[in-house]
Write a structure and sequence with these properties.
21% strand; globular; 477 residues; 40% helix; Nucleotidyltransferase, domain 5
Length: 477
């Protein structure tokens, strides 16, 4: 049976696994990444060092009998590489939001055009304002940068010697025209930026190159193994979750994310309220609703109360939601969609002296899910109703989160057979790239499986959700 290896470059962990063409995963391996100068930066050379370790383990177990490698990874980073492919500085991750000035300038001068051509207003987590800030504040780093790469693209370069990107990560930079799926050279020129520093855009299921002899010696892969460029982790998570025009995906990881799709051009209805990106399936667009501090907000709360996460989730199962439950606004890293405000604005509403710690734990879980329900409601108001929701990450693994999500979302709930959605999505692109499937939709039909969750939408949770909306509206910075 044909097998490929998929690699996911996360912001805290790198994962690697084997997949067959039926979607069965085996040999999952992962390693945690170190932080460098701050929580918002990483050493890209360490990305590759960790990838090499994981590949050596996986290839030794598979007998090196793999047909291809497929990639995915975190989006919106700023990573400049020099003429010999060496990073000019640590990668600035999506969570780095220091380019607020440049982001505001982009919106002030190009606001309407940004929405119409690129799908999004500028926010400081995008790569383009970070590039502008680098040129302004660290011009020597800008000049040394031959290309700006995302995480998976740096790994692709180290494996193959080729520097390319694809539409999902390119649309997460800001400056790729959604109608042509190419960089808008005139726009870059107007900004005083060199568009040649942006890598060539190829389809997400493309073979971008083959493993070089040097990379083969470092990884255990066979020289000449094809590498499929894959897509950004938002798009791969959507693919691996089975998101389509009737199905949305709810993910609670470091951030909270709601993923949906639509036909090209449909995103104009929601641009500026939800994020609109190119999708790895070229026949669709990808829509994102988000709260920046999803699982992170839960970790923050648990740490404040000196609770191990296991104990926090056990307490959250005990607390319950009722008409007088306190309301947690999880905006400690900003509100995200649909307000597109990234100024911290977290708060508690309705606290009283009788509240217990388990009640607060449950309210925290419920609070981080409410902005995602808000995004789903807005999506359906501006487009059409979705029948299904797939629960991913904490939303399917932890009973307290699963119960709150199931009670809060009115759609039919499903749990995926494989919760490693990004790895699965990359595998779908890998098998499409080597010709095992005619297109991404055929791969989705063959490789993604989920089971229905026996859960009902609860009136008490609807009332609590309405209280959340009122609190979120009334609490301002």
């Amino acid at each position: 049976m044909t097998k490929i290896i998929t690699i996911d470059i996360g912001t805290s962990r790198v994962k690697c696994a084997l997949f067959d063409e039926k979607g069965t995963m085996s040999g999952l391996e992962s390693l945690r990444l170190k932080r460098t100068e701050s929580p918002d930066t990483q050493d890209a050379d360490e990305w590759f060092a960790v990838v090499c370790k994981l590949l050596q383990t996986v290839t030794s177990r598979s007998g090196n009998d793999v047909e291809a490698v497929a990639l995915t990874g975190n989006m919106h980073a700023l990573l400049g590489v020099d003429v010999v492919g060496k990073p000019v500085a640590p990668a600035r991750l999506w969570s780095d939001n220091h380019a607020q000035r440049e982001s505001d300038e982009l919106n002030d001068h190009f606001g309407k055009m940004l929405l119409e051509k690129y799908g999004n207003s500028s926010i400081p987590v995008f790569t383009l304002p970070k590039i502008l800030q680098m040129k302004r504040e660290e011009p020597e780093l800008y000049l040394r940068s031959v290309k700006f790469l995302q995480s998976k693209e740096f790994i692709a370069y180290r494996l193959t010697g080729e520097m390319v990107t694809e539409p999902t990560d390119a649309s997460g930079v800001l400056g790729m025209d959604l109608s042509t799926l190419q960089w808008d050279g005139a726009f870059f020129q107007e900004l005083g930026l060199d568009v040649e520093k942006m890598p060539r855009i190829i389809p997400s299921s493309s073979i971008c190159g083959r493993v070089t002899p040097k990379a083969a010696s470092m990884t255990g892969l066979k020289a000449g193994t094809p590498v499929v460029i894959g897509c950004g982790d938002l798009a791969s998570a959507a693919l691996g979750s089975g998101v389509d025009d009737e199905t949305i995906s709810l993910t609670l990881g470091t951030a909270g994310q709601l993923l949906a799709t639509g036909a090209p051009g449909d995103g104009k209805k929601i641009a500026g309220r939800l994020f609109v990106f190119a999708h790895a399936d070229p026949t669709r667009e990808l829509y994102l609703g988000s709260v920046p501090a999803g699982g992170f907000a839960l970790e923050w709360f648990a740490n404040l109360h000196q609770l191990p996460m296991e104990q926090f989730f056990r307490m959250a199962e005990q607390g319950g939601i009722h008409e007088n439950s306190p309301v947690f606004l999880p905006y400690i890293l900003g509100r995200g969609a649909p307000s597109m405000d990234y100024r911290p604005a977290g708060a508690w509403c309705g606290l009283n002296a009788t509240n217990t710690l388990p009640e607060l734990c449950t309210a925290a879980v419920f609070g981080v899910l409410c902005p995602l329900r808000q995004c789903a409601d807005l999506l359906e108001e501006l487009t059409w109703k979705r029948k299904n929701v797939i629960l991913q990450a904490l939303a399917c693994r932890e009973a307290s989160v699963r119960h709150c999500a199931s009670a809060l979302f009115p759609q039919q709930k499903f749990i995926p057979e494989n919760s490693e959605a990004s790895l699965q999505g990359a595998a779908m692109l890998g098998f499409t790239g080597i010709g095992a499937y005619s297109d991404v939709r055929a791969a989705l039909k063959a490789m993604v499986r989920a089971r229905s969750v026996d859960a009902s939408h609860e009136t008490t949770f609807e009332q609590a959700y309405n209280r959340f909306l009122k609190c979120a509206e009334n609490v301002r910075i």
